[in-house]
Specification:
Blueprint (H helix, E strand, L loop, with lengths): L3 E10 L8 E6 L4 E8 L1 H25 L4 H20 L9 E2 L1 E7 L2 E7 L3 E6 L2 E4 L6 H7 L5 H6 L21 E4 L6 E5 L1 H4 L4 H7 L5 H14 L6 E10 L1
Antiparallel strand pairs: 1-11, 2-3, 3-4, 3-5, 5-6, 6-9, 7-8, 7-10, 10-11
């Protein structure tokens, strides 16, 4: 990806929660970028997202160094983190759910490979177009995708925050879908936890592209989500692809 300079911004905020269970990785040297939103209470959620933030970049880097295909490396890294979190969760008290979402972007050669598990999201902003590259693995969104309810109903559903797929979910039997794309000059990629995406809209994403550098934009998006009433931890990582 020699024709691009990639600038990165990142920001996280505890919000109104008693602790911050979000973790992120913004590592331009290893070309790995991640947002993980832990669940399971203070100790469990922080441990799960911390394991994801430690394991996934390491496994991706090791496998890419061994010349493995990037999509296979991404799937393997998520799978290894998943197994580690499942194992760690076995020490949790009965009935406690321990896990984390993960949205991951890996830059390799002239492509970026994106994958998501849970409801943290990746958005690609290209000009005035905003594309969500990941699926939300919530019960409400699954019902909307199969036509049982509408998108508007999904947004109001009591199932909108209930995940059926996340790292650490013992019943999960399939991995992440990996979405590759070829970046263009001016593209922006936003990785974010649902504390941000529940309060940010496409017009907010197109409005900020030209006005801010990535760090300023990441900070302004987090501040906007909190201003609009997010009670959750709020985290995002922003990548800006520019010509040299």
């Amino acid at each position: 990806m020699a024709e691009f300079v990639v600038h990165v911004g990142s920001c996280t905020a505890q919000g109104l929660r008693s602790n911050n269970e979000d973790r992120y990785v913004a590592d331009p040297q290893r070309h790995v970028f991640l947002v993980a939103d832990g669940m399971g209470g203070q100790e469990g959620g922080e441990q799960a997202s911390g394991l994801a933030a430690e394991i996934i970049p390491r496994v991706v880097s090791d496998r890419l160094a061994a010349h493995e295909d990037p999509d296979i490396a991404v799937r393997a890294a998520l799978a290894e983190a998943h197994q580690a979190i499942v194992h760690a969760g076995q020490s949790q008290a009965a009935g406690r759910r321990m896990g984390t979402t993960a949205v991951l972007a890996v830059q390799q050669d002239d492509q970026v490979f994106v994958a998501g598990i849970g409801d943290s999201r990746a958005y690609l902003i290209r000009g005035e177009q905003v594309d969500q590259l990941t699926l939300d693995h919530t019960v409400a969104d699954a019902l909307a995708r199969n036509g049982t309810i509408t998108l508007d109903q999904a947004r109001q559903s009591p199932w909108r925050n209930v995940l059926y797929k996340f790292l650490g979910c013992a019943e999960m039997n399939d991995g992440a879908d990996v979405v590759p794309f070829y970046p263009q000059a001016g593209d922006r990629l936003v990785l974010a936890s649902d504390g941000l995406t529940n309060h940010i809209y496409p017009e907010d994403l197109t409005r900020g592209v030209a006005r801010h550098d990535p760090q300023e934009w990441a900070e302004s998006l987090v501040a906007l989500a909190l201003e609009r009433g997010s009670r959750d931890n709020v985290t995002c990582v922003v990548l800006a692809f520019n010509r040299e």
